[in-house]
Write a structure and sequence with these properties.
Endo/exonu/phosph_ase_sf; 16% strand; single chain; alpha+beta; Reverse transcriptase domain-containing protein; Deoxyribonuclease I, Chain A; eight-stranded mixed sheet; 5 domains; DNA/RNA_pol_sf; 950 residues; catalytic activity
């Protein structure tokens, strides 16, 4: 085993990591201990070629930072890596075949310029951590800033006879080695002077051996030497030690190398797949596996190696080659200059290559986010998890146990529900038609992760008609027999980090990667029963329903707050957060809900069969964790949101809330829901407390639990203070809440939400910044901004009550983005007298304020045309008749701009009565357009075309 140490001087940038990896792939190594990384954020990267890189953080002054690079064939042996301090890291390798259990400490000692107390504290920490570790083999590598000479007395058996010279810090290191009963590796072997030094001064005048390798077992070290050809521009050289551990034992488990990326010629795939010969086989599994194998064979024959473009240019590679030659010849001045040029060239190459990849994706109409993600040649993984007792572990074996325990408990049934007896009906599901298959395939998204069978949506979109007919026959058989292939009973689950503490396993969302053919089957079922499920939902539910969106409920809530503020009405909003709602709803509760909503029994039996005896495989590292799934709907399946909404509606039907809530034109509005996002609407805390208790009790019957730490309430000043508790726990009060992506507060103040929109816009702009700054295509640049940044800046603008200062804030944010697009600073704009209108002529982007106003008018047209009983229209028309408004000018209303825009001055303040019926409306709209738009004629014409009733 080759264990190395290298002071990289810095690994804070992507260019430095790229240079390190390129040099590491040229030498033989197993582990490289890295010191002085100078990173402010930790990194755990798994590269496409299998190497794993762990980098810790430096201190607040930018000093220190340690890490390790583990080669591909040893990655499966990793048990844990921990950055214990900013100067000490620990890598633990578990026993695997001939590789023994091994702990490698990476250390970076303070230099001689530091105080004696800090140096002593470093060695005390290192000694304590070393003694706390009980692994049989232990190795310490790193930059100790110490010089150790040859053995001077017979008592110094821990030192070899081939050192160079001693200094004061070398004496302290020698004391540490003797205290811990370890052995100094560098001095055990005789080497020429040019293969011994590990650091050189600027100009190459002085050379010292200050990087050291220390170990605890004699006779296992076979060699220690520097590797001169490993050079990244650092003033240190890589020091490599070779160890020979026991060769007995079984052969180590080999790392399964990742298959090289390939591309498929889909026309060729379709021609190969068309050779399919359909035949009926009694065994469902054999029949299905035969089809999948044929698709795999066709795809394999249509594959061709994907030739990835080089990340570094030939000019940069030539600079790196010249840098190595200059260092080998001893030309220190040229080496220093070339090292600086290489760093800049690598940085520029990566920047240009990333921009080129995103530019290609933008021109092809592909996702820029996915293109940016594909450019990174590594993926990050979790580094530690918190156990139930509160301790944090970095051991992969322990982390796998934490994951298994958590998800075994999460997916296990906690509520006993008797098997629901399905009613007998005379409905017989008709045969699945090929046209149904084709319609379902067209609605599937491309570039999604495949399931365990490795079939992608692109495969299904290229299959010939003969296979579509086979799928129709198979699906018809599955429906009639209520049986599915065994392979559909298992899935692969990936854990996606959401937000919050990364050590908390609860902050990861389990996404179920199912067979694409399975999802095609459930999509066919959904297309058949979707209307029944939608008709069973009340107007309070807007989640995953055709014709509904988040804007419906955001508008309803903001309008409620607006009216309560104007008419001095008490209002209390309770925002409910359900804990892992989709993963914890009981299956029998879903089955019962489907029966109560009138879904044909044959489809219910089919869904029950799909959910029975289901298992999932979680692979956080290299070992699969198999978990039985006994409840929950699968996140990743298109039918899952509908099933969850049905189960939730089934319990809420039995809640007696008819006389609770806020009365809106004779109807009580007591809650709104968007899938599992629920808000209770009450005039006081007493009602809210009662409703929350009843809802919690109903949820418990189907396995759902409330997350009381995230469940909050918000009230205006007219609601008297009172304790708000649930099961003896206080419910937190908040002054504002982010509901469905929009921050709401009881003052209806838009300023906090605009601050969030600005941050979101800058975040979206960072994703396309490389493209918009590089491309010369003005139309493409404007299109990227209008499709990526503008929606982030104006999200939910349909519900905004814009004042002049709000419009100014949006315009200022957009102008700042425009200047960044063009590479012009505010100082330059002012100095050169460039008007903002000139910048707009150069960027050709849409005006955000005009876009927000047009969206609002368009939304108002939709609301006025609603003919159902949804709350969006009800609260828009609502004026409390039994409450007299206090005198004085009211706060700006949502409808004020629309009133001035659509109605004459002597018209009623509310425009709903004349919005569609008045024959003078188009002319008045054109007359009022200059108040809202800079181009009234074109705008009014567009609005007349878009908003005229169909």
């Amino acid at each position: 085993m080759a264990i190395c140490t290298f002071n990289a001087r810095t690994l804070a940038s992507e260019a430095c990591i790229e240079d390190l990896m390129m040099q590491a792939r040229k030498i033989k190594y197993d582990v490289i201990g890295l010191t002085e990384t100078r990173r402010h954020r930790p990194l755990h990267a798994v590269f496409e070629t299998g190497e794993e890189l762990f980098l810790g953080t430096c201190d607040s002054k930018g000093v220190g930072g340690v890490g390790v690079l583990v080669n591909t064939h040893l990655a499966m042996n990793i048990d844990s890596y921990e950055s214990l301090t900013t100067r000490i890291g620990r890598l633990r390798l578990r026993r695997c075949g001939s590789t023994p259990a091994l702990t490698i400490f990476v250390a970076y000692a303070p230099t001689s310029s530091y105080e004696e107390e800090e140096l002593e504290a470093f060695y005390m920490d290192l000694e304590r951590l070393y003694r706390e570790d009980h692994t049989f083999f232990k190795v310490i590598v790193g930059d100790f800033n110490a010089k150790i000479g040859p053995r001077r007395t017979a008592e110094e058996l821990h030192i070899g006879t081939h050192g160079v010279e001693w200094n004061e810090q070398g004496e302290r290191l020698s004391e540490f080695i003797m205290t811990t009963h370890t052995i100094h590796g560098n001095s055990q072997f005789q080497k020429p002077s040019h293969l011994r030094w590990t650091w050189e001064s600027p100009g190459g005048q002085f050379h010292n051996e200050i990087d050291h390798i220390i170990f605890n077992r004699r006779f296992c070290l076979t060699d220690v030497a520097v590797v001169p050809k490993f050079y990244t521009g650092s003033d240190h050289r890589l020091l490599r030690a070779r160890f020979c551990f026991s060769v007995r034992g079984k052969r180590a488990m080999k790392f399964r190398k990742r298959s090289p990326k390939t591309s498929i010629n889909w026309d060729h795939f379709a021609s190969l797949a068309s050779k399919w010969e359909d035949s009926v086989i009694d065994n469902i599994d054999d029949e299905y596996n035969r089809l999948v194998e044929h698709l795999h064979d066709s795809a394999r024959k249509a594959e061709s190696p994907h030739v990835a473009k080089r990340r570094l240019s030939s000019k940069t590679l030539e600079l790196i080659r010249q840098r190595g030659i200059a260092r080998a010849t001893g030309n220190y001045q040229q080496t220093s200059e070339l090292a600086k040029q290489c760093r800049e060239a690598i940085k520029e190459d990566l920047k240009e290559r990333r921009a080129a990849v995103m530019d290609e994706a933008a021109e092809a109409g592909r996702s820029i986010r996915k293109a940016r993600r594909s450019f990174a040649n590594y993926k990050t993984k979790m580094t530690s998890l918190r156990r139930p007792d509160g301790t944090v572990t970095a051991s992969r074996r322990a982390m796998e146990k934490v994951i298994y325990d958590f998800y075994s408990d999460l997916f296990d049934s906690h509520v006993y529900l008797p098997t629901h007896h399905l009613r007998q009906d005379e409905y017989i599901a008709p045969s699945v038609l090929p046209s149904e298959i084709q319609h379902a395939i067209k609605s599937m998204k491309n570039c999604t992760a495949p399931g365990p069978d490795r079939i992608k949506p692109e495969h299904l979109k290229s299959i010939p008609q003969v296979i579509i007919k086979t799928l129709a026959r198979l699906f018809t058989r599955y429906l009639s027999e209520c049986k599915v292939p065994t392979s559909w009973k298992t899935s692969k689950t990936v854990l996606l980090y959401k937000k919050g503490d990364p050590d908390d396993i609860g902050n990861y969302r389990p996404i179920c990667l199912l067979s694409v053919i399975y999802k095609l089957f459930t999509r066919v079922i959904l297309n058949r029963i979707g209307r029944i499920l939608d008709e069973g939902q009340p107007c309070e539910q807007a989640g995953f329903r055709k014709g509904f969106s988040t804007i419906d409920h955001i508008h309803t809530l903001t309008r409620l707050i607006e009216v309560s503020r104007e008419y001095k009405m008490p209002l209390c909003l309770t925002f409910i957060d359900l804990k892992k709602a989709f993963d914890t709803v009981e299956t029998e509760a879903v089955i019962e809900a489907l029966g109560n909503q009138g879904v044909p029994t044959q489809y219910i039996r089919m869904l029950r069969e799909l959910y029975d005896n289901f298992t999932t495989r979680i692979s956080p590292f290299y070992k699969e964790v198999i978990v039985n799934v006994k409840r929950g709907v699968r996140q990743g399946d298109t039918i899952s949101p509908k099933l969850f909404s049905a189960a939730l509606e089934n319990i809420m039907r039995h809640l007696e809330w008819e006389d609770l809530g806020v009365k809106v034109d004779g109807r009580y509005l007591h809650h709104l829901r968007f899938a599992d996002d629920i808000v209770l609407i009450t005039p006081n805390i007493e009602q809210a407390e009662r409703m929350l208790a009843e809802f919690d009790n109903a949820c418990g019957k189907i396995g759902l639990r409330l997350n009381l730490t995230k469940t909050m309430f918000m009230k205006n000043g007219l609601v008297p203070d009172a304790p708000f508790t649930l099961n003896g726990k206080n419910i937190s009060e908040c002054s504002s809440y982010v509901y469905l992506g929009r921050e709401v507060n009881m003052m209806n103040d838009l300023a906090p939400e605009l601050c969030r929109r600005k941050r979101a816009a800058w975040g979206a702009f960072q994703n396309i910044e490389g493209v918009v700054k590089k491309t010369k295509n003005i139309r493409l640049r404007a299109h990227l901004f209008d499709t990526a940044v503008l929606p982030a800046l104006t999200y939910a603008s349909e519900t905004w009550t814009l004042r002049k200062q709000d419009e100014h804030a949006v315009s200022v944010a957009q102008r700042a983005l425009e200047r960044t697009m063009l590479g012009i600073s505010l100082y330059t704009q002012v100095q050169k007298g460039i008007r903002s209108s000139e910048l707009r002529q150069r960027t050709k982007i849409r005006d955000a304020v005009d876009h927000a106003k047009k969206s609002k008018i368009r939304w108002a047209g939709h609301v006025m045309r609603y003919s159902d009983d949804r709350w969006t229209r009800a609260v828009t028309d609502w004026i409390p008749r039994d409450i007299k408004r206090t005198p004085g000018r009211p706060p700006t209303r949502w409808s004020d701009k629309l009133t001035r825009f659509s109605c004459s001055s002597n018209c009623s303040r509310w425009f709903s009565n004349t919005f569609l019926d008045s024959p003078l409306y188009p002319n008045r709209r054109a007359q009022k357009a200059p108040e809202m738009f800079s181009e009234p004629l074109n705008t009014s014409k567009t609005l007349q075309q878009k908003e005229s009733p169909s």
